[in-house]
């Protein structure tokens, strides 16, 4: 049964930014976000605390494939390499504690392309991955939308991983087994399939 008061539904999907990165330190009352001075990651013997403001543009692209996300969520000493499609998530022996973001950013090469040679960020930039936007000042439109409409701070991803599998889940309730970004072969198959 439809509600005549609801005229439109908008789905805003952001690209490669977490809820905490955008709203974690926004100051919006009641949000379940991060806590500056309490949440942190460590890597290479150094502690990287949550803070603000986040840089407008990261100096290098953080990894966001499935294995990168597994490391980010389960810590720098995760057993991501042992996980196989269809296994329980997280893998046995792993706890989701959000302690691997700094380690993943410092070591990931999953965003390397043939056009641009990827190099990990300099040590001085590793802490950037732990910073949150000063939402009201840096993202005023997002802040206004969040304070004037609804915001979901306890949404759970169907697949902790990259853009396309999550887009497929949002619109089709399945990624059809895809857990990483589509390969060129996947793209060619889909384009040819659409022609029939």
Inertia-based shape = globular
Low-confidence stretches are: none
Distance between the termini: 35 Å
- The SS-based structural class is mainly alpha
Q: Summarize the helix and strand pattern as letters.
A: HEEHHHHHH
How many whole angstroms does the radius of gyration measure? 18 Å
Total strands: the figure is 2
Number of helical stretches of at least 4 residues: 7
Strand content: under 5%
- In round numbers, the mean pLDDT is 81
Largest sheet: 2 strands, antiparallel
* Percent in helix: 25-40%
Architecture overview:
The protein has 196 residues and is mainly α. It contains 7 helices and 2 strands, in the order αββαααααα. The protein has a two-stranded antiparallel sheet.
Brief write-up:
With 196 residues, the chain is mostly helical.
Strand and helix layout:
Blueprint: H1 19-23, E1 40-43, E2 46-49, H2 66-74, H3 101-107, H4 135-138, H5 140-148, H6 163-172, H7 184-194
Can you give keywords for this protein?
mainly alpha, 2 strands, globular
